[in-house]
Amino acid sequence: MPLVSWWGTSDTIEMVRQLRPDLKLAVGNVKKMPYPDEYFDGYWSLGLIEHERDGYDAMAQEMVRVVKIGGFVFLVFPHMSRLRRLKAALNMYEVLEDDKFNEVFYEYVLDHLAVARDFEKRGFKLKYVYRNNGFKGIKEEAGNLRPWMQGWGDSPWIMARVTKVAVSESTKWFNSHTIVLVLQKL
């Protein structure tokens, strides 16, 4: 069974092929894959579903189609952490008009419980939730402190690295940047 990558560009795939010529890689469209129904035992979606202005429905339909019964989908995406929910409740986010939104749109931050319910309606069972990267969750929401935190996080100094890991692990329950949902197809 091939290892298929649907992210990146042809340049990215070529770079990976040079490093790992043994892997079978392809560039394609996650909304219409050239594989038969129930072809894969597992499907990793590493930060894709949050980038579609019209939602991730077409991607989810393909996941349902190509994953075998009993197979797994691993979804990784930025989510509405407790910190982000608190900031939203306190009206700390700018509300953008359509024209400004279109200029700056990069990704949605999704409600992981809503995503899990959506996939359960599609015939999956949520098996595991993992909150990831508490440091980045703080950094992304830190406003004027963000450049300083970026410098700290990128520092080669051992104490900076240790601190970054300690902050990330000890705070991810509240402010993780991304979340991993592990779902099994029933």
Describe this structure in words.
It is a single chain. The protein is an alpha+beta fold and 186 residues long. It has a single domain, classed as Rossmann fold (3-Layer(aba) Sandwich). Helices cover 42% and strands 19% of the residues. The protein has eight helices and four strands; from the N terminus they run αβαβαααβαααβ. It has a four-stranded mixed β-sheet. Helix 6 (134-140) crosses helix 8 (158-175).
Number of helices: 8
CATH architecture: 3-Layer(aba) Sandwich
User: Uncertain runs with pLDDT below 50, 5 residues or more?
Assistant: 1-7
How would you sum up the major sheet?
Answer: 4 strands, mixed
What portion of residues is helical? 40-55%
CATH class group: Alpha Beta
Mean pLDDT: 89
Distance between the termini: 21 Å
Which percent range describes the beta-strand content? 15-25%
Structural Rg: 18 Å
Structural class: alpha+beta
Task: Describe the structure using short key phrases.
alpha+beta, Rossmann fold, four-stranded mixed sheet, 8 helices, about 40% helix
Short account of what is shown:
The chain is of the alpha+beta class and 186 residues long.
List the helices and strands and how they pair.
Layout: H1 10-19, E1 40-46, H2 57-66, E2 67-78, H3 82-89, H4 98-104, H5 112-121, E3 124-132, H6 134-140, H7 146-154, H8 158-175, E4 178-185
Parallel strand pairs: 1-2
Antiparallel strand pairs: 2-4, 3-4
Helix pairs in contact: 6-8
